């Protein structure tokens, strides 16, 4: 059996042509498509990785922001709580201070009212004592009392002689006034004492039943009185001074 080499060569050529045609028109597009698909898949995978990384970055940023907001919220809450406690303490301190001031003011007011009431009681008592004393002296006043007042007034003239001369000026007459007419002995004693101090002075005696019991000596612009009324006035001033001193001491004690 002989080999037809021409046919074999033709078959080989046909096979090579077929291979070239398959490679040219079939395998190349398929391989190009596969390569393009691989590149697309690779690109998408890279994009997915990038997107995941970006998402993770964004998530971390969001987490950081949330933590920062939580910290800020906690700080603000703590600050607000501390400020509220501080304001509460301030309000409580002001309320306590106001209460203490009102309590102290009320205590001072009560002490002042008590002191005023006590002072009024003292003054009412003093007025009653003065009234009773005046009534008693008026009821007991008689010629003997006025005679004693003559002696007392006569004793007071000499120590006050210089003041009386200065106040009397150029007066030439002295007037002695009593509630009831003085006895002759009383007039003589008073006139004798006055002329010892004022040798050229004449003395005139008068009686005035509207005057309180006692004697009043007038020489020009000078006047010297020793009566129940002047005695009561002196007693009233003394009592008033004592009460005023006590009130002043009480006020100082309240302030302290």
Automatic annotation (TrEMBL):
Organism: Roseovarius marisflavi
Protein name: ATP synthase subunit b
Membrane topology: Single-pass membrane protein
Entry function: Component of the F(0) channel, it forms part of the peripheral stalk, linking F(1) to F(0). The b'-subunit is a diverged and duplicated form of b found in plants and photosynthetic bacteria.
Transmembrane segment boundaries: 6-22
PANTHER family in the record: ATP SYNTHASE SUBUNIT B', CHLOROPLASTIC
Compartments (UniProt record): Cell membrane; Endomembrane system
Keywords per UniProt: ATP synthesis, Cell membrane, CF(0), Coiled coil, Hydrogen ion transport, Ion transport, Membrane, Transmembrane, Transmembrane helix, Transport
Lineage top rank: taxon: Bacteria
């Amino acid at each position: 059996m002989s080999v037809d080499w021409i046919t074999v060569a033709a078959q080989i050529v046909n096979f090579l042509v077929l291979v070239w045609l398959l490679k040219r028109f079939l395998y190349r597009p398929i391989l190009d498509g596969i390569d393009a698909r691989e590149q697309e898949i690779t690109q998408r995978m890279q994009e997915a990785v990038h997107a995941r990384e970006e998402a993770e970055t964004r998530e971390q940023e969001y987490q950081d922001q949330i933590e920062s907001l939580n910290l800020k919220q906690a700080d603000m809450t703590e600050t607000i709580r501390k400020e509220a406690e501080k304001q509460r303490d301030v309000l409580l301190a002001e309320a306590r201070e106001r209460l203490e001031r009102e309590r102290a003011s009320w205590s001072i007011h009560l002490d002042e009212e008590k002191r005023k009431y006590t002072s009024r009681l003292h003054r009412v008592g003093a007025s009653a004592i003065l009234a009773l004393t005046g009534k008693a002296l008026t009821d007991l006043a008689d010629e003997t009392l006025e005679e004693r007042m003559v002696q007392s007034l006569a004793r007071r003239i000499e120590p006050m002689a210089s003041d009386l001369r200065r106040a009397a000026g150029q007066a030439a007459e002295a007037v002695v006034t009593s509630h009831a007419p003085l006895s002759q002995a009383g007039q003589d004693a008073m006139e004798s004492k006055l002329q010892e101090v004022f040798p050229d002075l004449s003395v005139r005696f008068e009686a005035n039943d509207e005057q309180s019991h006692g004697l009043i000596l007038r020489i020009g612009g000078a006047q010297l009185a020793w009566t129940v009324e002047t005695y009561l006035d002196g007693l009233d001033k003394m009592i008033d001074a004592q009460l005023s001193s006590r009130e002043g001491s009480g006020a100082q004690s309240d302030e302290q």
